[in-house]
Amino acid sequence: MVLRVDGLEVRYGKLHALRGASLSVAPGETVGVIGETGSGKSTLARAVLGLVPASAGQIVVDGTDVTGLNTRQWRAFRRRGVVQYVFQDPLRSLDPDLTIASSLTEPLRIQGVSFAEAASRARELLKRVSLGPELLDRLPGELSGGQRQRVAVARALIVEPRLVLLDEPVSALDSSNRVRVLELLKQLRDAGTSLLFISHDLGSVAGVADRVAVLYRGEIVEQGPVRDVISRPTHPYTKLLVGSAPTLRSAAADRAARASLRALLTSEGAVS
Amino acid sequence: MSLQLTDVHISAGDREFVHGVSFDLPAGGVVGIVGESGSGKTLTCRAALGILPPGFTVSSGTVSLGGRDTATLSTREWTALRGSTISAVFQDPASYLNPSLTVGSQVAEVLQVKLRLRRRAARDRAVELLDSVRLPDVYRRYPHELSGGMLQRALIATAIAAGPRVLIADEATTALDVTVQSEILDLLADLRDSTGLALVVVSHDLAVVAQLCDEVLVMRDGAVVEQGPVSDVLYAPRHEYTRLLIDEHESYGLDRFLSLDGAALEGAVLEGAVRERAPLEGADHGAAR
Ligand SMILES: Nc1ncnc2c1ncn2[C@@H]1O[C@H](COP(=O)(O)OP(=O)(O)O)[C@@H](O)[C@H]1O
Ligand SMILES: Nc1ncnc2c1ncn2[C@@H]1O[C@H](COP(=O)(O)OP(=O)(O)O)[C@@H](O)[C@H]1O
Ligand SMILES: [Mg+2]
Ligand SMILES: [Mg+2]
To answer: Would you state the pLDDT for residue B6?
Structure first.
């Protein structure tokens, strides 16, 4: 497994953001994590990156148990470039003061790769995400949102990571850029990179992922192959999610069915 | 006829931004407007509401409300119609509520101003309205205590407070989670069914519009490139741009899975819902109104 998360609990003070989440990503596999705002998706990403501590459970990344690493050990682990990440806002994945060239080559330079080699890799990667070398001297602020997000993906790939975490990578993009980035993610998947693709939009995830895990109020309530989860959802939240998806030609569920699923979720929420 | 636009052009100075929009919205009807950002959807809505940005005018064509050409209305008459005949909700509900006043008092204020209700009557009616958008117990809550979906429902309560015949929802669900979006859309459909409210639903997402509308307008760069009954537009799109919107959905929407397994899914959802419904009648009561 490239990633194994077992019984992960994360608390922010009194708030129990993850309540025993378990999931795994096999080599070459793309796993989608889907859930509503506040369900704990970003917390999961941050925990895997060592940015928030786990209060219980275990996270194993490419054979390394990272749960107990201290800050210094984390820094060393990150430098190996096993896991890379792309966030919703590319300005958070890219340093606004660094040119695209520096942003792209920095992870390689940290690994001691020569300047010339890093520069040629940067050009290659830009090409891979369908961007021209003329962007190398620009700052992130001088690029469109879609271009920035593709640069963020290129930066994540340059060290040939085993796993890329993507937290809402297309949520801030307009539809044509969204499709381009999703196409790019499909190419990565097909080239064998493991992806953990986090989104609140089941449609985006469904087009790219092999498996999907549904996070609801800090718990993974359902996971399985995309087709199974969408066509035979078992948890009421998943049913409501699928039944709420705006579809063109197939009415996913009717108003009455959604109303009773909402009532069911509300009554369960009141109990727990 | 609740709202009728006839070849509406919108300009600022010598630049025209909207090049002729027409539709007829009867009571209880739903018309949808789709198009990418900047295509002129909001300007069209604002023209219907008589609130174009400064410098913008309806340079030709007519907007009529309840059979009356709005060009003949004085500012005062417009103010009286807005809210009581036509009303709207937008994408960012938080910015339309005063953060320092309770949600309920803001709904009540609309009732006092628009319907000249006394304080006590306005408060009672506001409680009823909040109930009708499935927000019991929020009268005394402040905007920051509500989620995005709850805020949008509070805004809908405010928008329908004075009993308008037409409600415009301009990207009203764009910023919301899909399950919350469906809750708002279902609420609008319920209001249409129970009160004959006519709706204009604006979205950049063709599928959102397709759920609810009878007729759809596809806009691009200020022009209506395609218009017709939803089923015609979806099944026999004539314009390349409409086809693009449909293709996008087909490659990245759930339709793919649902068209193959649609029957199974619907069975699963409905069966689950029916099975789970029985013990829930009580909990469901507030929503039934
Ligand atoms: N740094 C933080 N401090 C306190 N609470 C937080 C923090 N980050 C997130 N939360 C809370 O934890 C829950 C899960 O948040 P998050 O993981 O960001 O969800 P998602 O990404 O699914 O929207 C939410 O209730 C959120 O308000
Ligand atoms: N207040 C304004 N001032 C200047 N230009 C505006 C204003 N509102 C809209 N526009 C312009 O009019 C066009 C249509 O805008 P709009 O109706 O808001 O599009 P949509 O709602 O479809 O995204 C855009 O080119 C936009 O830049
Ligand atoms: Mg998040
Ligand atoms: Mg708009």
So the answer is: 98
Share in percent of chain A as helix, strand, coil (round to 5): 45, 25, 35
Residue spans of the domains in chain B: they are: 26-42+96-165+175-288
Cβ neighbours for A237, distance < 8 A, ≥ 6 positions apart: A36, A214, A216, A221, A265, B179
> Which residues does chain B have within 8 Å of residue A260's beta carbon, measured at their own beta carbons?
273-274, 276-277, 280, 284
Look over chain A and give the mean of its residue pLDDT values, rounded to a whole number. Answer: 91
pLDDT, position A180: 84
Q: Considering every ligand atom shown, identify the ligand nearest to the alpha carbon of residue B54 and give its number.
A: 2
CB of A17 closer than 6 angstroms to any ligand 1 atom:
yes
Domain B26-42+96-165+175-288 has CATH 3.30.230.70: no
A262 lies within 8 A of chain B by CB:
yes
The strand pair at B3-12 and B166-170 is best described as: unpaired
Q: Is B51 in the pocket of ligand 2 (CB under 6 A)?
A: no
Q: What is the pLDDT of residues B230-269, one digit of tens each?
A: 999 988 999 999 998 888 877 777 877 775 444 444 444 4
* Protein residue with least CA distance to atom 7, ligand 1: A12
Of B36, B179, B252, which is closest to A203 when you measure between CB atoms?
Answer: B252
pLDDT at position A251 is: 61
Give CA–CA dist B170/B200, Å, rounded: 8
Say if pTM beats, i.e. exceeds, 0.80: yes
Closest atom of ligand 1 relative to the A45 alpha carbon: 17
Taking only the tens place, the pLDDT of each residue in A132-145 is: 999 999 999 999 88
